[in-house]
Write a structure and sequence with these properties.
It comes from Oppiella nova. The structure is a single chain. The chain has helices at 45-49, 92-96, 108-119; strands spanning 3-13, 22-31, 62-69. A hairpin with an 8-residue loop joins strand 1 (3-13) and strand 2 (22-31). The chain has two domains: 1-74, Apoptosis, Tumor Necrosis Factor Receptor Associated Protein 2, Chain A (Sandwich), CATH 2.60.210.10; 75-121, no CATH class. The protein contains three helices and three strands. A three-stranded antiparallel sheet has the order 2-1-3, with no helix packed on it. It is an alpha+beta fold. Helices cover 18% and strands 24% of the residues. The two termini are 28 Å apart. The model has no long low-confidence stretch (mean pLDDT 77).
Length: 121
Amino acid sequence: TWSCNATAELKIISQKEGIDNITRKIQHIFYSKENDWGFSHFLGWNDILDPEKGHIKEDAIILEVWVSADAPHGVRSVIGCHLCAIDWRWDSKKHTGFVGLKNQGATCYMNSLLQTLFFTN
């Protein structure tokens, strides 16, 4: 089974003088049976929507997110690209509805970049 150690810092940026940013940090080892993990409660919705609390201004909030992940462990590499971490048994179309780029040597870097950009909006 694969695993990947990741850390993240999530912030709601204060938009009012004298009010601190709300910051939460996480560190977690993700693996095949636990690949979705995070906060069940970050900040109460009423606190976010209250202009006096300083987190919303003109119906907008500012989020700042930093994510760092180690290289995954326990996956099989595709021949031709020593940095590709693609398990040949994984059927991306079956699980996500999407198909990655065909690996043609060094295209795995572009595939990773495109998938990262797509899934982070």
